Amino acid sequence: MRRRASLVLLALAVFCTALSPLLRWYVFPRLAKVPAHHYQAVVLEAKDATLIDYATLEPRRVSTVTMVQTLKGNVEQARRVKAATGRDVVVWDTLTYAAGPDGAMVSRIPERYVFDAHSQQPVHAGGEHVDDTPVRRDGIEFKWPFLVEKRDYRYFDLMTRTSAPIHYKGTRTFRGLDVYYFEQTIPWTEVPLPRRLPLGITPDAVRQLGLERWYTTRRMFWVDPVTGAPVNGEEIHREELRWTGHPEKKPVTAFAGHVKIRPDYVADTVATVKAQRRLVLLLTRDLPLGLIALGVVLLAAALVLEARDRRAPATGVPHDGGKPGRPPPGEGALSRGGSP
Predict the structure, then answer these.
(1) First-to-last CA distance in the chain?
(2) Cα dist. 317→68, 130, 323, 325, 329 in Å?
(3) What are the φ/ψ torsions at residue 102 (nearest 5 degrees)?
(4) Which of 88, 145, 136 is nearest to 112 (CA)?
(5) Of the candidates 107, 62, 65, which has an alpha carbon nearest to the alpha carbon of residue 198?
(6) What is the full DSSP assignment across 137-199?
(7) C or N terminus of the chain, fewer CB within 10 Å?
(8) Gap between the Cα atoms of 22 and 18, Å rounded
């Protein structure tokens, strides 16, 4: 009976030990994915910023420039792309809406971002665009992959519509979380004007005045290394209207400010990420390590039972039917040196 129990325990130990890496390296990559229906809204603010007045083409100081960034999963479009490509994808339709202190629109830029639901790498299908202009993304945007590595990534820039390295700068603590800090600097680059501008002004009207738009930014992200979700983001952002063909003329500052996520949205993001990271850690760390520990315990129990089973005949009933501990007749006399 003990031998049978030890074999069962041994089989369970092998099963648990084999299941541990399978859970981490096979099950997790297939289960972990961004949901197709995800929706998110974030409010960012630039306090004491500089903003152009398009009525006079003069920069002015304002108390606050507010940017509302909404992100909505397009489930129907994701199904179409999956049917066409065979890949499990997510389609995000986003809108970045900037407003001045009076609530009037400064700019409005829509995007469509199509990416692999598991790896977060771009998928070039489904009409990806920035401001209704087709683009072909290279690298990530908005979200890092699950289980972020301590290395540089390529990150897509909305304004230049190109990708550039975003550099890993170390591990930091942010609101109780150990996060990876990334930073990217985009040098001064000529960029397209938004299609939608205040006062009904069009990009063509600005160009006819002999002006072109230039932009630079220093972009900073604090990223949860487990889920790949940024828990905070900031930009030191500058835009200028420069006179085409006249570098000697002074540029007009269109926008300058330190853009930060509003504190209440930061708190909400951190709470959401803390809940999500528990699920990821369950599949990548807690369950695999727990299965290995359980396998070791089961193996030890099997070995103990097997050892007891092997020792059992040495203390059992003798083959001649005599009582244990009492010698057969005649043996005691011989052992004392007597004669027959």
Answers:
(1) 46
(2) 86, 88, 7, 10, 17
(3) -90, 0
(4) 136
(5) 107
(6) --SB-S-PPSS--SS-EEEEETTTTEEEEEEEEEEEEETTEEEEEEEEEEEEEEEPPPS--GG
(7) C
(8) 7
Interior angle at CA 217, CA 229 and CA 48, nearest 5: 95
Query: Which residue from 185, 340, 178 is spatially nearest to 274, judged by alpha carbons?
Result: 178
d(CA 250, CA 239): 13
Distance CA 105, CA 201 (A): 12
Cα–Cα distance for residue pair 298/249, rounded to 1 Å = 79
319, pLDDT greater than 90 = no
Distances 197 to 59, 192, 242, 280 between C-alpha atoms, Å: 15, 12, 17, 42
224, 273 contact by CB (below 8 A): yes
For tokens 């853009």, what's the residue? 259
Please write the tens of the pLDDT for every residue from 280-292: 999 899 898 998 9
Task: State pTM to two decimals.
Answer: 0.84
Instruction: Read off the pLDDT band of 271 (50, 70, 90).
Output: very high
Q: Which of 228, 67, 217, 263 is nearest to 141 (CA)?
A: 228
- For residues 241 and 211, the answer to whether their CB atoms sit within 8 Å is yes
Q: How many whole angstroms separate alpha carbon 224 and alpha carbon 229?
A: 6
* Angstrom distances, CA of residue 323 to CA of 316, 332, 333: 10, 15, 18
For tokens 């998928």, the residue is: 123
Mean pLDDT of 210-217: 96
How many Å apart are CA 35 and CA 229, to the nearest integer?
A: 13
What is the average pLDDT across 121-139? 93
Q: Could you tell me the pLDDT band of residue 332, with boundaries at 50, 70 and 90? A: very low
